[in-house]
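Appendix C reproduces, verbatim, an entry submitted by the partner laboratory led by Prof. M.T., so that reviewers can inspect both the input and the predicted structure.
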Amino acid sequence: MQKMTPQISEVDTVVNNLSELQEDATVPRNVRIQIQNTIKNLKANTELPIKVNKALNELDEISNDVNLQSYARTQIWNVMSVLEKLH
């Protein structure tokens, strides 16, 4: 059995958190679509630093959406802080 590196498990945690946020019906549709794209990019078969940078940029853009509720924005900031540790 292959052992997962801590970085990969952190990315999986981020993807799970974003998936929960994406399924929240109170999150605006355009934000859910952006979150879906971020998840797709995090699952892509590219180098970790590239995936993390791209995700951080996308999440920063999402967090600035005026239609986003404060609790969702806080969740996105929490995800960003986890990704910044991997950066």
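The first helix runs from residue 6 to 22. Additional entries are available on request from the coordinating office.
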